[in-house]
């Protein structure tokens, strides 16, 4: 495990070797994700993509996830503590990650123009970062640009599952605990904000209109956390975006359709000579 200090907080990072002369892939995980959770069904899709494209990769766990330091007072009053926001997440938490934390991390890693690959919350963070910072390209999997009823309903079901029989080794809480140093910190920072009334108004369509880099949109047709209206909204805001709706695929294309997804990314990178 590798930790890097960003303004006094240790974030878990992992490096995948490759051609250092090419723009590195930087992977941004989902709302309950982490460095280790990019490995699904025994396969590390980031490693497969780095190998297929011949480039280096960087993964990191956001604060409170994986082996990164926890968020202080994660269900308490929201407030700033120096550089960092602590307490309950507020609706702008993905803006803070995209525009404050991610740039600071990239500076620490010496990365100037990455190729961002984000999933779910990580996809939203990738879009926000690309709207204000220089990147070689941006590929987003199952992004959220506004809040849908289907998303809130799925997240409410996740809360119920998390609270059910929490000490059972097969429970959602115990399965997540294998990947998170402080599993309650990871779960509640995500769940509380998504189920808050204030978050229902969340919308980043305006920010998407500012994206100028090559942009790839991918979503499963059977996504249980959002509809294809998410990609429709991005395409209206950024008409240059390339889109793929994957059949037989839920919320995690890298889990459900890893080979098809790798091929799409290879074609995207080749087409734009990234």
What's this, in brief?
This protein is of the alpha/beta class and 274 residues long. The chain is 37% helix and 19% strand.
- Structural category is alpha/beta
What summary fits the major beta sheet? Answer: 8 strands, mixed
Helix content: 25-40%
Proportion of beta-strand residues = 15-25%
Oligomeric category: single chain
Poorly predicted ranges: none
Q: Work out the count of structural domains.
A: 1
Description:
The protein has 274 residues and is an alpha/beta fold. The protein has a single domain (2-271), classed as Alpha/Beta hydrolase fold, catalytic domain (Rossmann fold, 3-Layer(aba) Sandwich). Helix content is 37%, strand content 19%. The chain contains 10 helices and 12 strands. It has helices at residues 45-53, 93-109, 121-132, 149-163, 172-177, 183-194, 205-208, 229-237, 253-256, 258-271, and strands spanning 2-6, 9-16, 25-28, 39-40, 43-44, 57-60, 79-81, 84-86, 115-119, 137-141, 215-220, 242-246. The strands form 3 sheets. An 8-stranded mixed beta sheet has the order 1-2-6-3-9-10-11-12, with helices on both faces. Strands 4-5 form a two-stranded antiparallel ribbon. A two-stranded antiparallel ribbon has the order 7-8. A hairpin with a 2-residue loop joins β1 and β2. α1 (45-53) packs parallel to α10 (258-271) and α2 crosses α3 (121-132). The protein is globular and about 50 Å long. The mean pLDDT is 97.
């Amino acid at each position: 495990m590798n930790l890097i200090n960003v303004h006094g907080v240790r974030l878990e990072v992992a490096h995948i070797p490759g051609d250092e002369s090419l723009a590195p892939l930087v992977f941004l995980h989902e709302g309950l994700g982490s460095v280790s959770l990019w490995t699904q069904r025994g396969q590390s899709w980031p490693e497969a993509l780095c190998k297929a494209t011949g480039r280096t990769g960087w993964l990191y766990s956001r604060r409170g996830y994986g082996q990164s330091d926890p968020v202080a007072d994660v269900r308490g009053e929201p407030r700033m503590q120096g550089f960092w926001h602590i307490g309950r997440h507020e609706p702008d938490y993905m803006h803070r990650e995209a525009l404050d934390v991610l740039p600071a991390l990239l500076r620490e890693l010496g990365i100037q123009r990455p190729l961002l690959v984000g999933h779910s919350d990580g996809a939203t963070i990738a879009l926000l970062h690309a709207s204000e910072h220089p990147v070689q390209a941006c590929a987003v999997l199952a992004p959220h640009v506004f809040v849908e009823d289907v998303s809130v309903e799925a997240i409410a079901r996740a809360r119920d599952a998390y609270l059910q029989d929490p000490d059972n080794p097969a429970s959602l809480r115990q399965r997540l605990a294998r990947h998170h140093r402080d599993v309650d910190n990871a779960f509640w920072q995500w769940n509380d904000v998504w189920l808050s009334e204030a978050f229902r108004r969340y919308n980043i369509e305006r920010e998407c209109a500012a994206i100028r880099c090559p942009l790839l949109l991918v979503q499963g047709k059977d996504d249980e956390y959002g509809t294809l209206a998410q990609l429709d909204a991005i395409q209206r805001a950024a008409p240059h975006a390339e889109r793929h709706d994957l059949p037989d695929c839920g919320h995690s294309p890298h889990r459900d359709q890893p080979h098809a997804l790798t091929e799409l990314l290879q074609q995207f990178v080749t087409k734009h000579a990234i």
